[in-house]
Design goal:
The protein is mainly alpha-helical. It has helices spanning 5-15, 26-40, 52-65, 69-85. The chain has one domain (5-85). It starts with a helix and ends with a helix.
Length: 86
């Protein structure tokens, strides 16, 4: 998917932690997340093993960013593969 300049700037701000959800209600935020995932395309479920320490850090970071652990992990993977593709 080709992004325009504004979309690239928004994505960079998000990936670098400069954007935060304006909605704090978990149900509403989940509804938006589900809608975005449906828009992006089919989601593939995977199982992953993490050390307890890594998982605890991910939980803390996800809470700070106002998102679920799964969303944060997905974003981390997306950010990594996006950098590799460039």
């Amino acid at each position: 998917m080709k992004l325009n300049e504004e979309e690239i700037e928004i994505l960079q701000d998000f990936e670098e932690g400069r954007l935060f959800p304006s909605v704090t209600d978990d149900k509403i935020l989940q509804k938006f997340t589900d809608g975005a995932n449906q828009f992006i395309g089919k989601v593939q479920n995977i199982n992953i093993r993490l050390t307890e320490n890594d998982f605890n850090i991910i939980q803390l970071q996800a809470k700070k960013k106002g998102m679920s652990c799964q969303t944060l992990i997905s974003n981390i993977i997306h950010q990594y593969i996006s950098q590799e593709a460039v």
